[in-house]
């Protein structure tokens, strides 16, 4: 992007939700502390260290012990919202509701109370990739029973925390959970079954979400008055040219990515193009029925309209162009062939340390505009956005600081110029953390953590100052240049 891009000097609305986001496995540590059960990330990092950069989250940022310090950092930063996740196996060690763990329950009770005492609203994710291994051994998201196990877990959370938590997220990034947990195998539980188990996972997860939403509606909504939603991640896909085939290729990628989950929870079914293409390729591959499962009429009713507002995690963008129909490989289906387009990132887009991650601020504006247009102008929250480096850079104003500035400026244009009802922005992340398969080699925090020091000290990076300025003033530029 051009360096002369004009950074907006307008102020974000007074009630805009600014915060940071995190996930239990990435920060807590205490993997077997005080009765916590094993989850699929504990198992993956212990049994398959080679799949996880030979590192693990056994201690991570030690936020299980240092949560008060983290709340102090949040308070110092001036955020009004904190997004975090509950480790299912910390509160329910086996995953089933008959196994509850008082120490785990107390941990989140205390955290929530401390946040609220500091006027920081908790935005709570129920599942950020870490299901208890007992449930995984029963098939995890490939077992339809998972729908009911999740509903039971959700009810347990609403009962315990629902008087204090008013903003609930059922699932974080089901695309990652299913595509990489059960398709490519890059993420725990590291199951390799592309084009089959990834879709089965998505199917059960969507119904689990829908059932949990309905249960909240029926059993809690009128006394607790909270909101329930799902977080969906997607790249923006830019057509490689303006020929109709490339425009269609880009749209098709958005539908197979954001729409895979966004359509069912808004409209009650998968996008037509997904159903058509997977069914027709499945048939050519010799399957009796589509590899993409079908919702029953009853399931459609359950899932239709089950997000109180929409969420998106944004990191980067890609270009898409039309391609010849990928060859039929009956024994090796995969999601990319189901999409059937070329996807790439041009060499002249600004790189980061991560191969798939180029800095594309304008893509964030287009993505939230697409979500707004596609789903009837709902309220939208950006629930993650952040910049990868190798974690050694303290003076990160021109990298991470600039990244947040440019993405926020584009998002603000979506709000003020495109009429997108954007109400919040959660930066990933407050502190450096365990970055899944990359271990500690990639980092996104406003605070550096020394992972070789048993005390896990936090040290501010320069970007923390910038983000403090943004959230406390609502301005992306110096306050004196900001207009109201
Ligand atoms: C997010 N992609 O995952 C996760 O929600 C976080 O837990 C994670 O730490 C964060 O990204 C930072 O990397 C993603 O391939 C993983 O586009 C991959 C993609 C996007 C998001």
From TrEMBL:
InterPro entries in the cross-refs:
GH, GH_1_N_CS, Glyco_hydro_1
Is Glycoprotein found in the keyword set? yes
Instruction: Read off the Gene3D superfamilies from this record.
Output: Glycosidases
Q: Which GO terms describe its biological process?
A: carbohydrate metabolic process
- Alphabetical UniProt keywords: Glycoprotein, Glycosidase, Hydrolase, Signal
Any single GO molecular-function term of the entry would be:
beta-glucosidase activity
- Give the family, as the similarity comment puts it: Belongs to the glycosyl hydrolase 1 family.
Q: Which PANTHER family match?
A: GLYCOSYL HYDROLASE, LP05116P
Q: What is its quaternary makeup?
A: Homodimer.
Q: What is this protein called?
A: Uncharacterized protein
Q: What is the lineage of its organism?
A: Eukaryota, Metazoa, Ecdysozoa, Arthropoda, Hexapoda
